[in-house]
Automatic annotation (TrEMBL):
Location(s), subcellular: Nucleus
Assigned GO CC terms: nucleolar ribonuclease P complex; ribonuclease MRP complex
One Pfam family here: POP1_N
Keyword tags: Nucleus, tRNA processing
POP1 C-terminal domain residues: 745-834
Annotated organism of origin: Nicotiana sylvestris (Wood tobacco)
Ranges of residues in domain Pop1 N-terminal: 52-177
Protein name per UniProt: Ribonucleases P/MRP protein subunit POP1 isoform X1
Region entry Disordered, spans: 1-20, 40-92
Phylogenetic placement of the source organism: Eukaryota, Viridiplantae, Streptophyta, Embryophyta, Tracheophyta
Length: 845
């Protein structure tokens, strides 16, 4: 049987060869008809139409990219030649010029945009990963892209990792002159001044071992307008050794005596960018006044274009710095090197606010064992490992490269190594440029694989600039008494910021912006400038920008989804209403009468027409701060209490050193029974408000937002909440109409507290005594809010609550009511006064 039966036979394929002439003759009629049709359509015009021409490689943009690369390369070559740029009539494209400008690492100053806004040295790195905002004259990283979430992961990394923030927008002012004149200047503008510290702390600050924190004021009294919190540090007194090539004879002679005064000293005052101009002008005015009085010159110079600052924080911050910072052998900083080496391994032994002056190696030089790079050979520069398969000579990707000393200019070795960061008169050489390092690494790899012309050897690049591979810096340890998180600040030249930034990030640190920094400050319980400084002009300017951004965002919403408007800058002047209510309540308490809120308001209206509207007169400057101040030291709070004759107020700024003192006062019935006939509550109407910073914890439930109002509860409210196990929301709720209209914006732009007229609103109305400046942070295990409250009102509430309960049930915390501005429900919170826990509240982020 044939097996191929039934299967289809394959068709015959085309012939292997075709005769074109025979094929054309057989198809001649078809070709002629096709030609006639085309001829008719083209009107017998067979010329190529230019509008219809298309290149066969038009879809491929590789040629265009190569041309762009050539232009960029020619532009990079021409940037170094300034004469060529002046003669070049054709201007380079903007993206080329911008890239060249951002990649440059100038020795001083910041690069600026077209409108004069400055860019950080890490601007290019941040712009690719963060949302940028224009603030305080800089382009600053606001936070990671998104809706502003991620606080839970951030706090987790804070406790188990390392965070880094580029704070180069903070700038320094240098004061140089006789020591006694510098101390007299600081005494007029700083609170507290260096002379007000104890003997040990004062000697450590003056010697340059630790830095000091204070508030910068305008020249005047203690309660003058605050400018900003500052950090100041003194240059160490010892002269640099004479074994270096720098001539120190003149420097040491200048430091002996100046016009019969004390030794010549140098001082740095670090000011936030939001208040730098105002602070620099205040210091210059103070120096001019001292010059006129003493006849000796005290120089005041801004260092805004010379120094930068990096902030490193986290539980593993010290380990990262120990891994990255390798002090070089420099005789001028041997003392700090020994201290740094002895302390860095034991974080607990590092004193608070310590300063280490170091000269460290370039962190890009991975091989730290070779001290003299000029003696290193090629085989010592490159380190190899055997391949997993056992083959030799295969380089790994993680090979360690060390750039030889031929990249350093002649004569720079040994001189720049021993230059101290305080030598601002000498220009510190910038680090070796990245493209030079890459070229040298590429050359070394070619030598390794025997590629290229080996006879050429090393080619000395013709570089006019001098580079250095040693960087002087100051390492500052933040105060570790108030927080358990380790925080370091690195002060170094601006030209070295990018090098150390990349080294810190590549070693595992997470970069943060302004938003994340605000979360961390709230988690640590530290104030954040300028959000929590309403007595500064920088606060008014910052909140004006916040209000404009809020209004712009609200306009984008549809009318039916738009919420009612709330005051973005908190109306601090409305707190005077509670002060006057206490005055009326004091008279009623003497007569054993209890006034309702509407009676208090009526009493205020009869006694003080000025406070009936709960606001001050409109000042000429729209950015003027409110009429008051924030007490951030125990001495300032004590002076305020003495000025108003309020020694009977239950505030304890003096008893911080003994933990049992507050408990002793809590059990002392004699203090509570003292009746001053309302004298301690009769505050002068013209007296400034005294605010203190408090930490708020929710009593049972609730989440507090930024801008929420802190109200004074009645004693019945506190007793009702603390005694009952279940509380309905109606017991602590206000009508929605009152929540919408309790703060109204006037034609002048200021917000006022409106007295309710409805009976239900009057019954539930509670007078404001403060506002929350920082709300709860999402993801925090112990959520805490930060608020500024009036000190006299807090003392009054504490007295009422202590009198209502027995000795054993009294608490150091004060019960207050908190209501979010878009909510109708009051929440009970426990307020802890910061100045009752620490001597000062000066350190901020």
């Amino acid at each position: 049987m044939n097996s191929d039966r039934g299967k289809p036979r394959p068709a015959a394929g085309p012939p292997r060869t075709i005769n074109v002439h025979k094929f054309a003759e057989s198809r001649a009629s078809e070709l002629e008809s096709l030609h006639s049709i085309v001829k008719e359509r083209l009107s017998n015009d067979f010329k190529s139409q230019r509008s219809k021409r298309r290149r066969t490689t038009g879809h491929d943009n590789r040629l265009a990219k190569s041309r762009v690369r050539k232009k960029q390369k020619s532009g990079e070559d021409n940037v170094t030649n300034l004469d060529h740029l002046e003669k070049d009539t054709k201007k380079l494209p903007r993206h080329v010029r911008r890239k060249l400008e951002l990649t440059k690492n100038s020795q001083n100053g910041f690069s600026t945009s077209g409108d004069g806004t400055k860019r950080l040295r890490t601007h290019l790195w941040h712009a690719k990963r963060f949302t940028m905002t224009k603030l305080w004259g800089f382009y600053l990283p606001l936070g990671v892209h998104g809706r502003g979430r991620g606080s839970r992961a951030l706090l987790k990394n804070l406790k188990g990792g390392v965070l880094v923030h580029d704070a180069s927008y903070c700038r320094a002012v240098q004061l140089e002159g006789p020591e006694d004149l510098l101390l007299s200047i600081l005494e007029t503008v700083l609170v507290p001044s260096p002379c007000s510290h104890c003997e040990d702390a004062r000697s450590d600050i003056l010697s340059g071992a630790i830095y000091g924190s204070a508030e910068l004021h305008h020249v005047g009294a203690v309660f003058s307008q605050t400018i900003a919190p500052v950090t100041y540090m003194w240059q160490p007194q010892q002269c640099r050794n004479t074994d270096t090539k720098v001539d120190h004879a003149n420097i040491c002679d200048e430091q002996e005596k100046v016009d019969g005064h004390s030794s010549l000293r140098r001082l740095w005052v670090w000011i936030h960018a939001a208040a730098f101009r105002e602070g620099c002008n205040a210091l210059q005015n103070a120096c001019e006044r001292q010059v006129d009085a003493a006849g000796t010159r005290v120089s005041c110079v801004s260092l805004e274009n010379h120094l930068g600052k990096l902030e490193v924080m986290g539980s593993r911050a010290s380990q990262l710095l120990q891994k990255m910072l390798h002090p070089s052998t420099c005789s001028s900083v041997n003392t700090s090197v020994l201290k740094y080496a002895s302390y860095i391994e034991n974080d607990d032994q590092i004193p608070s606010s310590a300063i280490f002056s170091l000269s460290v190696d370039d962190p890009r030089f991975l091989d730290k064992d070779i001290t003299n790079a000029s003696e290193a050979k090629v085989q010592d520069i490159l380190s190899y490992k055997k391949d997993e398969s056992g083959r030799n000579g295969t380089p790994k990707r993680d090979m360690k490269l060390l750039v030889c000393s031929f990249l350093e200019p002649e004569g720079s070795h040994g001189l720049s190594e021993c230059i101290d960061l305080w030598d601002t008169k000498k220009d510190i050489d910038p680090p070796i440029e990245e493209n030079i390092l890459c070229m040298e690494k590429h050359r070394q790899r070619k030598e390794l694989f025997r590629i290229g012309d080996m006879s050429t050897g090393r080619q000395h690049s013709s570089i006019e600039r001098q580079f250095n591979r040693f960087c002087p810096l100051l390492l500052l340890r933040s105060d570790s008494k108030k927080t358990s998180i380790i925080r370091w600040s690195i002060i170094l030249p601006l030209s070295w910021i990018k090098v150390f930034w990349m080294a810190i990030v590549t070693n595992g640190a997470q970069a943060i912006g302004l938003r994340e920094k605000h979360w961390i400050s709230c988690e640590l319980g530290l104030p954040c400038f300028p959000r929590e400084f309403p007595d500064c002009s920088a606060y008014s300017c910052f909140m004006a920008l916040e209000e404009a951004a809020y209004d712009k965002k609200s306009e984008l919403r549809s009318p039916h989804t738009r919420t009612w408007k709330v005051p973005v800058p908190s109306p601090w002047d409305s707190l005077r209403l509670a002060i006057e209510a206490l005055n009326g309540a004091a008279h009623g308490r003497v007569q054993h009468e209890q006034l309702l809120p509407d009676d208090m308001i009526r009493n205020i209206a009869m006694n003080s027409p000025y406070l009936r509207s709960c606001k001050t007169e409109k000042e000429s400057s729209c950015g003027a701060p409110f009429e008051g101040f924030v007490a951030r030291t125990c001495n300032v709070l004590t002076q305020f209490l003495d000025e108003i004759k309020g020694s009977h107020l239950l505030l304890f700024p003096k008893v911080l050193h003994s933990k049992k003192c507050i408990g002793k006062f809590m059990k002392d019935e004699r203090i509570l029974n003292e009746d001053a006939d309302g004298v301690i509550y009769q505050i002068n109407q013209d007296q400034k408000l005294c605010l203190v910073r408090v930490l708020l914890h929710a009593y049972r439930e609730g989440s507090f937002e930024e801008g929420a109002v802190v109200c004074a509860p009645h004693i019945d409210d506190v007793m009702l909440w603390t005694t009952r196990s279940e509380i309905s929301k109606g017991d602590f709720q206000v009508p929605e109409s009152f929540a919408r209209s309790c703060f109204s914006q006037q034609a002048t732009g200021k917000w006022e507290f409106q007295v309710p007229e409805e009976p239900a609103a009057k019954e539930s109305c509670r007078l404001p005594i403060g506002f929350i400046t920082t709300g709860f942070v999402r993801g925090s295990k112990k959520p805490v809010a930060v608020a500024l409250c009036e000190a006299v009102c807090l003392a009054r509430l504490r007295e009422e609550q202590w009198k209502a309960v027995g000795d054993r049930k009294r608490r150091k915390e004060i019960y207050v009511l908190v209501r979010n501005l878009r909510s109708t429900v009051y929440r009970v919170a426990l307020a802890s006064i910061v100045l009752e826990q620490w001597e000062d509240d000066l350190e901020c982020m």
